[in-house]
Amino acid sequence: MIIKGVFGKAIKDSRNDLTVEVTIDSDIGKFKSSAPNGKSKGKYESKSYMKSLQKDIESLGKLSDYFSEEYIEKFSDLRRIEDIVKGHIGANTLFAFESAVLKALSKEQKKEIWELINPNAKKFPRFVGNSVGGGLHSSSLKKPDFQEFLLIPDSKSPKENQKINLELKEKLRNLLKKKDSKFIDKKTDEDAWMTSLNEKEILDTLSELKVPVGVDIAPSGFYQRKKYHYKNPVLDRTSEEQLIYVKNLIKNYSLFYIEDPFEEEDFESFSKLLKLFPKVLVVGDDLTVTNYKRFEKAMEMKSINAIIVKPNQNGSLIEVERVVKLAKEKGIKTIFSHRSGETNESILADLAFGFGADFIKCGITGPERTAKINRLIEIEKSLNFNSTK
After folding, report:
1. Of 21, 115, 151, 299, which has the highest C-beta tally within 10 A?
2. Which residue among the candidates 41, 143, 310, 333 is catalytic per the annotation?
């Protein structure tokens, strides 16, 4: 496959913010893909754009003719693209570009996108569904300080997992109506329920659903001057007090999954928590930002046993592959994840399945979230069909 030209344009994401869509013109046709946007960002994430979205689009135009002598025939050939664009475009633009290239390769070779990564992939990721939201994702004046409350059914079937999550989310809606007098069916950036309840009240409610649950605390959003500043209710916690608080939540609510329990510099507190609860998924996101060196540090300090993989957090799918490979070598669980500002692009599902992710975090409802879920269900259906031939 030969790239004859490439150009970008600005489109709107699910939050109505601008993001990038990249189209490639190849010898087998035109293919396009888009990148999501994160609102809650780790400070060590790769820059979404080199200077600005518009500058990235201009850079693509200037580089357009440079790809015509590069013959792309396999996943690892993405490195050739990266060598050309390095220093000219940011992570969002690179991710959208490489995704469009994989679509072209998929068409040319009559393969599914996931087959370009691993033709022998068989394991479906378990769903991590955001059911109630708070923190930076909620526009409510009174809200939980934690960013996400997650439902994690344990079926091996994507179709069954989605059915469970949809039923539970509706049941949760009725429970929230009873417990939160201010509840009005409003939703957060990720189409999760918005509530004025605090995290303990929400966890009390989730415990009635009889399903494994987790939380994304995302405390970098409320950590300042060496303290965690909670607003619902108002109180400050030191790192030591945060550790005690999180420890009690895990014990009292049998939490299965806890993402970013501490701010993004505190590898040591992560390590202390993991030592106390080796069987709980202690997940790094802002801590590791899909960055190989940050991940290596987390490994050295034994800070996590699971890592969030956000492809646009890095941009380079070659680097994503390196991160996943290291995770597998070290026995670390991988969670491929959407962002709060999403598009209808579904390639995250192919990446999660192809790379053998243990989990996929892409919400429960909303068109941009269900695009990923439906793609996984489609893969499941095609494999089941082929296996019965």
Report:
1. 151
2. 310
pLDDT at 105 over 70: yes
The tens digit of pLDDT for each residue in 300-323 reads 999 999 999 999 999 999 999 999
Residue 141 lies in a domain: yes
Which band of pLDDT confidence, cut at 50, 70 and 90, is reported for residue 70?
Answer: confident
Q: For every residue of the chain, which 3-state class applies, written as one string?
A: CEEEEEEEEEEECCCCCEEEEEEEEECCEEEEEECCECCCCCCCCCCCCCCCHHHHHHHHHHHHHHHCCCECCCHHHHHHHHHHHCCCCCHHHHHHHHHHHHHHHHHHHCCCHHHHHCCCCCCCCEEEEEEEECHHHCCCCCCCCCCEEEECCCCCCHHHHHHHHHHHHHHHHHHHHHHCCCCCCCECCCCCEECCCCHHHHHHHHHHHCCCEEEECCHHHCEECCEEEEECCEEEECHHHHHHHHHHHHHHHCCCEEECCCCCCCHHHHHHHHHHCCCCEEEECCCCCCCHHHHHHHHHCCCCCEEEECHHHHCCHHHHHHHHHHHHHHCCEEEEECCCECCCCCHHHHHHHHCCCCEEECCCCCHHHHHHHHHHHHHHHHHHHHHCC
Residue 310 designated active-site: yes
Parallel/antiparallel/unpaired status of strands 148-151 and 193-194: unpaired
Assess whether 163 and 266 both reside in one domain. Answer: yes
Which residue among 115, 190, 264, 368 is the active-site one? 190
Q: Is residue 218 part of a domain?
A: yes
Kindly tell me if the per-residue pLDDT of 30 is higher than 90. yes
Residue 98 sits in a domain whose CATH number is: 3.30.390.10
- 361 included as an active-site residue: no
- Same structural domain, 107 and 130: no
What is the chain's mean pLDDT, rounded? 95
Look up the domain containing 69 and give its range.
3-112
Summarize pLDDT for 35-57 with one digit per residue, the tens. Answer: 999 877 778 999 999 999 999 99
